[in-house]
Every structure is written in structure tokens, then in C-alpha cells.
TrEMBL record:
Keywords: Aminotransferase, Pyridoxal phosphate, Transferase
A Pfam family: DegT_DnrJ_EryC1
GO annotation (BP), single: polysaccharide biosynthetic process
Lineage start: Bacteria, Pseudomonadati, Pseudomonadota, Alphaproteobacteria, Sphingomonadales
Family annotation (NCBIfam families): NHT_00031
UniProt similarity note: Belongs to the DegT/DnrJ/EryC1 family.
Modified residues (N6-(pyridoxal phosphate)lysine): 221
Protein name: DegT/DnrJ/EryC1/StrS aminotransferase
InterPro entries per the UniProt record, alphabetical: DegT/StrS_aminotransferase, LegC-like, PyrdxlP-dep_Trfase, PyrdxlP-dep_Trfase_major, PyrdxlP-dep_Trfase_small
């Protein structure tokens, strides 16, 4: 690997992005509605089923669950709500701790906080950008003790109730190894699969390795419902609990209102679900097109000595957001400046959660790889190009 990402190579990269996406401002990721999106949403309006009741919700839930190979799907108003409800039904309670990664979007930690728990941050792998099973094992062995069937943080006395890794930019992390560790330590695995719809480890979809997982259908994700989320699980009881909790915990009855616990109004409206059903129809073609865009970036980077983030062998990413790794923070900032000034939207990876005021005092393992990556990773425009829209027609 050539360590020098030369200014000439980076200027040529901006030209290549223009070749792919054409003139005008180029966003990082924009939604595309070339299939049945209009027909299905207009049908909701015409039939008056725009809100929390309607057949598209159940259809969307079943479609996403089937695509992921999970037994059950529960739609929610957004991915953050899905993660929150998933943690609650997985048994996370006030005062617990949840092991996660510091290199993630804020929603991961927000969901942990909504459940009344505190995050603990372990490092990521430099190739997947997701939780490192080796770092997880090191942290658990050095910082926890077993008490009955539980794993307890030796420093705080809190129960480690769950582990929540995240599949960064749709690149599957080493989730099978993490699942085995969670099994060994008696910790519930909840996958933050918000970014990884369409990402597989061998034949198995991300989000099916733990007890429960959540996908996001926000407008910037690979497919969208405007805003939305889906919880997936194979556990019928967890699915029932999740549906109940996210729909105000109302006991079914033809006319009486009886709510048996404090639930949430996390329902996905039928209007959004209708959009989602159409987007799921387009997803296979979208994945194929995005793989081609990623291959163009990969080949360009290989030819110009740039470091392109590629999934390790055996892992099939959805290529939601492509990323490169620059030499240092100065090189990163120079590229961000130049590309954005040229109308090509590029973005750095997130600031580490451990550096935000709410989470600065949470335990972490040093986060060597996460810190290194946070200074160097830049996302490139990754939408389906206009020239490929024909392949998305219903
Ligand atoms: C998008 C996202 C979520 C959930 O997001 P919503 O915007 O609430 O749908 C959660 N975690 C990660 C890592 C995400 O990227």
C-alpha cells in the first residue's frame, strides 16, 4: 500500500466522482424513487389509510423480515426508536451497562441512554470499522467478573446487560465472533444494523446473529420510508413484546382502552410503510448498482495509491457509503475542503462518542483504532447515479 495519498490522485478522484454523477452539486447519498413509490403512496391517500392503521405496515414488516431471513419484523417510526425498543425488550434496564463502539452515529448511544443504561466503549477493527471481537474479549476479561449467570463490571458493579456492535457504512463487522463471545459471557447481543440492510456474512444477513436487531429507513439510508425503522428477531415472545411496547402497550379490544404498561407511540404510519414496500422492491437492483459504483472507486484507488475501505473476505457489504482512508488529519481536511468547494459532498466519519460531553466519562479501552480512523476516514458520494435509474423501474 502506497502510504502517500498524493494531491494529484485526490484531484483525479474528484474528476472520477464527476464522471460517475455528472455536473451540479453531488450529495453524499440521496433517495431514489423510480418504481412503485408514487403509486403505493397515492393509494394510501386515496383510501384514507395514511396513519397508524393500514395493510402496508404489516406488509412492510413481513417484507423486511423475509429479506433479512428473520422470523419477525416490527416497524417503528425511526431507527432510533427501533433500537430503543429492541434494547428494552432484550432486558436492558436502568443502571445497566451496554458495550458498544465509540466509532458510531449518535443514535446508538442515544438508544442506550433512553433505556436508562450507560455505554462502555471498546475498539473497532481497522478493516471493518466495526466492533473488534479481540478488543471486546480483552475488555471483558480485564474488567468484568461473573456473578451467578451475569457479567458485572468490576469497577462500577453494574451488570453488562447487552452488547451492541454496529455494521459501519454497511460493512459487516466480525459479528459471528462477537456472537460467540456474548454467548460465553452471558450477554445479550443486540445488533445496530441501521446501516446494513442488504449486507451479509456469507449467506446470512446482518441483524440475524444476535437476539434482536434494528434497521433504519431514514432518508439517507440505502432505502427509505422517509423516516422509519424495523426491529427483526427470531424470538416470537420478543417480537410480541416489541410490537406491544411500540404501539402504546394497548391490549387488543374492539372498543375498550386498556394499556398494561408504559408503552411508546413508535408506530410507523401506513403512508411511510407504503413507500417502504416500493423501496424494498427496488432494493436488489439498488444493491447491484451500488456494487458497481463501489467497484469503480476500488479500481480507481488501486490504480492511484489511495486506500479504499473494503470488506474482508466472506463479508458482502451493501456499499451504502463508500469510504477512503487518508494519510493524516491534515490530508483529510485538505481533501474535504477541496472536494466540497468543487460541489462534491464528502464527509469525515463521526466524532468518537467518547469525545462527546454526555459520554466523556464512560469507560473505554483506549480506542486506538477508532482514534486513528476518526482522523482519516472520508465518505465519498455513493448514491445510485441518474444514468442507472432505468434499472429501478417497476
Ligand atoms: C441511521 C442510524 C440509526 C438510526 O437512525 P434513525 O435516523 O433514527 O432512523 C442508528 N444507528 C446508526 C449507526 C445509524 O447510522
Amino acid at each position: 500500500m502506497n502510504p502517500a495519498s498524493s494531491p494529484a490522485a485526490l484531484a483525479a478522484l474528484v474528476d472520477t466522482i464527476r464522471d460517475i454523477y455528472g455536473p451540479g452539486p453531488i450529495p453524499l447519498h440521496r433517495p431514489v424513487f423510480e418504481g412503485n413509490e408514487r403509486a403505493y403512496t397515492i393509494d394510501c391517500i386515496d383510501s384514507n389509510f395514511v396513519s397508524s392503521v393500514g395493510a402496508r405496515v404489516a406488509e412492510f414488516e413481513a417484507t423486511v423480515a423475509a429479506f433479512a431471513g428473520a422470523a419477525h419484523g416490527i416497524a417503528t417510526v425511526n431507527g432510533s426508536a427501533a433500537l430503543h425498543a429492541a434494547l428494552v425488550v432484550a432486558g436492558v434496564e436502568r443502571g445497566d451497562e451496554v458495550v458498544t463502539q465509540a466509532l458510531t452515529f449518535i443514535a446508538t448511544c442515544n438508544a442506550i441512554s433512553y433505556a436508562g443504561a450507560r455505554p462502555v466503549f471498546v475498539d473497532v477493527d481497522p478493516d471493518t470499522l466495526g466492533m473488534s471481537p479481540a478488543a471486546l474479549r480483552r475488555w471483558l476479561e480485564a474488567n468484568t467478573r461473573r456473578e451467578g449467570g451475569r457479567t458485572v463490571n468490576a469497577a462500577t458493579g453494574a451488570r453488562i446487560a447487552a452488547c451492541m456492535p454496529m455494521h459501519t457504512f454497511g460493512i459487516p463487522c466480525r459479528i459471528a465472533e462477537i456472537a460467540a463471545l456474548c454467548e460465553e459471557f452471558g450477554i445479550v447481543l443486540v445488533e445496530d444494523s441501521a446501516e446494513s440492510l442488504g449486507s451479509f456474512v456469507g449467506p446470512r444477513h446482518t441483524g440475524t446473529f444476535g437476539r434482536i436487531a434494528a434497521f433504519s429507513f431514514n432518508g439517507n439510508k440505502i432505502v427509505t420510508t422517509g423516516g422509519g425503522g424495523v426491529i427483526v428477531t427470531d424470538d416470537a415472545e420478543l417480537a410480541r413484546r416489541a410490537k406491544h411496547l411500540t404501539t402504546t402497550a394497548k391490549r387488543p379490544h374492539p372498543y375498550e382502552f386498556f394499556h398494561d404498561e408504559i408503552g411508546f407511540n413508535y408506530r410507523l404510519p401506513n403512508l411511510n410503510a407504503a413507500l417502504g414496500v416500493a423501496q424494498m422492491e427496488a432494493l436488489p437492483a439498488m444493491l447491484a448498482i451500488k456494487a458497481e459504483v463501489a467497484e469503480r472507486y476500488r479500481a480507481f484507488c488501486a490504480a492511484h495509491g489511495l486506500r479504499f475501505v473494503e470488506a474482508p473476505e466472506g463479508k458482502v457489504p451493501n456499499h451504502w457509503l463508500n469510504a477512503i482512508i487518508l494519510d493524516d488529519r491534515a490530508a483529510r481536511d485538505a481533501f474535504l475542503e477541496a472536494s466540497n468547494a468543487a460541489g462534491v459532498m464528502t464527509r469525515p466519519i463521526w466524532q468518537l462518542m467518547s469525545e462527546l460531553p454526555m459520554y466523556a466519562d464512560c469507560q473505554n479501552d483506549g480506542l486506538g483504532n477508532a482514534r486513528w480512523l476518526a482522523e482519516r476516514v472520508v465518505n465519498l458520494p455513493s448514491s445510485v447515479p441518474d444514468s442507472e435509474f432505468g434499472r429501478l423501474k417497476a
